[in-house]
Amino acid sequence: MNGENFLAASLAAQAQASRSSSSDFAFRAPPEAESILFRFLPVSGGQFAARSPSEWFERCLAMGAQRFGCELPLEPGSLAPARVLVDFSDGRRSAFAARWFKASEGRYTVAFQERHGEGEKPLQEAQRAALELRSALEESAALAARLGLQAYSACFGRALAILRGEAGLPARPFWPVLGGAAGRLFDAAFASDVFEHRGGWGTLGRRCATEAGALEPYDRVVLRLFLATRHAAMAAAASAGCESDKKQGIPVHRPGFPARGLLRRLREAL
To answer: Which residues of 132-163 are buried (b: 16+ CB within 10 A; e: fewer)?
Structure first.
């Protein structure tokens, strides 16, 4: 998933976790986001723009925000923006759609515009999303090993270990602090981020699948994991701070060593 999806998912996840636990909104933007602002729809008394995520969060709470979530594109190559969803106590739903504008070398200004939420698809529950992600990762790891894509197979294996609580990601200042089943689901979803813009595993993956006469199963498995990671990220954001591991029915294992440099090693191998 690209930075646009991560920003929307991490923003929603941290907001939901803070709202559920009545804790501080400890959100830090990823390094590529130089500044983030939010434009609210006009209300009586004029327009309002929040100049930071914390100001946006406080404004949403003041307006009666009850629940936060996100909506990510579910079609490979889609140009639809990632959106942060907010449900209010009066039954309204707002969707803050993100647009990115280049600000400086390698950095961007991100503008979230509020829109009335309408017609969103029902969200997959966290337990079901975790089970689907686990199954998709297992299938993907097996196919990657069969095609000789060892770096991909190792990446998917590590994501499975994260999902089971046997490993973790290195500490990063811009990563949402979620903990529990929601945190593992969020981390595993983004640890599986090996997709190019069109949803494949890069030119190497498709070439290996073609040479092995396995293009049809490759396309099917890739699409399945693509969808599973996005459903998992959305479910994790919406369930952050809401339920314990026991209630969600996701087993807890003793944590192992963090996956230091996992994605860096994958990119170097390719």
So the answer is: bbbebbebbbebbeebebebbbbbbbbbbbbb
